[in-house]
């Protein structure tokens, strides 16, 4: 088989798929996934081409690829009966036909990456990570960058969810709420993102039945079960854009984007200026500040700021956390909710 550009592209795609231990790929699966990646190049290959590619990699190429051909029990989507499915994979999951030796610079950069990864509970438990570190003879005993940790009871959970996301696995989550710890709740989701906020890790996923984006605190996850037989659905769009207009991780559909104006006392204004509440934060100076001081003459000193955010629980909590040092000026709905939050807190203290 000629090693033309199209063939090399197919070998690259097949190389990744054959090394994957999280899915069982038949010839039809390999053909479909190769065509999905070739679609943007306006190319298409047949099942016969994939069969010839597998034969070439295993018997004729200089790579000496040892490929396992095995069978599993699978459920036919048409008849719903259990059938035998013939699958293919590398005998050694670490094998690659494109393996090359690392340069010293690459080893050094990987060593720095291992040092950073070591700060996150859970990620070092990914299979093969420690073996790779040892094979590179990378020393990670000197800590240069330090992160505040929030240890999980099941330290492997973060790493296992990381794997489920990278391998695009549908998962069944078992979780509980703090107010009902004995009630087991179950939902099937497409996992998309692991996000840290306020020293707590969250899984961002879409519900399989509704497609709604949900967030799950990892310390409330009891277990999760991978469902490799179910089809994984990608998120349509840039998931990070969903968090650009909020503080925290709570996504509430339908809430509008609002400009929130607030005043901060002299005691806290430098803190807020150097550690913004949100990326959209603006410090109002000059003519705008003069206008605001005329509008709010009772506010002595301090500084005026504004952010553009969608209202959620974390926003109200953040604005309330400064107490009397931060006063929300507008909109009135946000101002009232912060006032109610602080009033409830004061009443709780008064009841002691």
What labels would you give this structure?
single chain, 352 residues, alpha+beta, Arc Repressor Mutant, subunit A, SH3 type barrels, 4 domains, five-stranded antiparallel beta sheet, four-stranded antiparallel beta sheet, 10 helices, 11 strands, 33% helix, 24% strand, elongated
Describe this structure in words.
- This protein has 352 residues and is an alpha+beta fold.
- It has helices at 5-18, 27-38, 47-60, 104-117, 129-135, 156-166, 269-274, 286-295, 313-320, 332-350, and strands spanning 67-75, 82-90, 171-177, 180-197, 200-207, 213-217, 221-226, 257-264, 282-284, 303-310, 326-330.
- The chain has four domains: 5-90, Arc Repressor Mutant, subunit A; 101-149, no CATH class; 168-243, SH3 type barrels; 257-350.
- The protein has ten helices and eleven strands.
- The chain has a five-stranded antiparallel sheet. It has a four-stranded antiparallel sheet with strand order 9-10-8-11. Strands 1-2 form a two-stranded antiparallel ribbon.
- Helix 1 (5-18) crosses helix 2, helix 1 crosses helix 3 and helix 9 (313-320) crosses helix 10 (332-350).
- 16% of the residues are buried.
Low-pLDDT stretches are none
Strand order of the largest sheet: 6-5-4-3-7
Q: Please give the share of residues in helix.
A: 25-40%
Strand-residue proportion: 15-25%
Overall residue-averaged pLDDT value: 84
How many beta-strand segments?
11
Estimate the global geometry from the Cα principal axes.
elongated
**Roughly how many Å is the radius of gyration?**
27 Å
Specify the biggest β-sheet: 5 strands, antiparallel
| End-to-end distance | 82 Å
Compressed to H and E, one letter per element, the order equals: HHHEEHHHEEEEEEHEHEHEH
* Structural category: alpha+beta
Query: Number of folding domains?
Result: 4
Q: Treating each run of at least 4 consecutive H or I residues as one helix, how many helices?
A: 10
């Amino acid at each position: 088989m000629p090693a033309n550009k199209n063939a090399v592209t197919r070998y690259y795609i097949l190389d990744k798929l054959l090394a994957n231990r999280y899915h069982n790929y038949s010839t039809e699966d390999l053909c479909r996934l190769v065509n999905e990646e070739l679609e943007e190049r306006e190319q298409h290959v047949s099942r016969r081409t994939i069969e010839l590619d597998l034969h070439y990699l295993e018997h004729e190429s200089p790579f000496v690829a040892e490929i396992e051909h095995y069978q599993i029990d699978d459920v036919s989507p048409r008849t719903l009966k259990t059938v035998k499915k013939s699958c293919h994979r590398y005998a050694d999951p670490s094998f690659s036909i494109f393996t090359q030796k690392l340069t010293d610079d690459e080893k050094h950069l990987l060593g720095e990456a291992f040092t950073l990864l070591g700060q996150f509970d859970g990620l070092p438990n990914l299979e093969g990570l420690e073996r790779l570190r040892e094979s590179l003879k990378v020393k990670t005993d000197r800590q240069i960058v330090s992160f505040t940790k929030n240890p999980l009871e099941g330290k492997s959970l973060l790493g296992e969810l990381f794997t489920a996301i990278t391998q695009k696995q549908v998962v069944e989550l078992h979780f509980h709420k703090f107010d009902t710890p004995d009630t087991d709740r179950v939902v099937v989701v497409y996992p998309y993102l692991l996000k840290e906020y306020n020293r707590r890790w969250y899984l961002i996923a879409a519900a399989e039945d509704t497609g709604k984006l949900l967030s799950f605190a990892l310390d409330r996850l009891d277990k999760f079960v991978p469902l490799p037989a179910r089809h994984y659905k990608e998120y349509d769009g840039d998931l990070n854009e969903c968090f650009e207009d909020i503080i925290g991780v709570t996504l509430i559909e339908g809430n509008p984007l609002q400009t929130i104006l607030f005043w901060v006392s002299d005691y806290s204004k430098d803190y807020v200026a150097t550690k913004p509440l949100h990326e959209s934060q603006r410090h109002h100076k000059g003519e705008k500040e003069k206008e605001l001081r005329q509008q709010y003459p009772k506010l002595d000193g301090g500084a005026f700021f504004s952010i553009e955010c969608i209202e959620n629980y974390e926003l109200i909590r953040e604005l309330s956390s400064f107490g009397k040092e931060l006063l929300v000026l507008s909109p009135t709905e946000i101002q009232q909710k912060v006032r109610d939050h602080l009033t409830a807190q004061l009443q709780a203290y008064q009841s002691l």
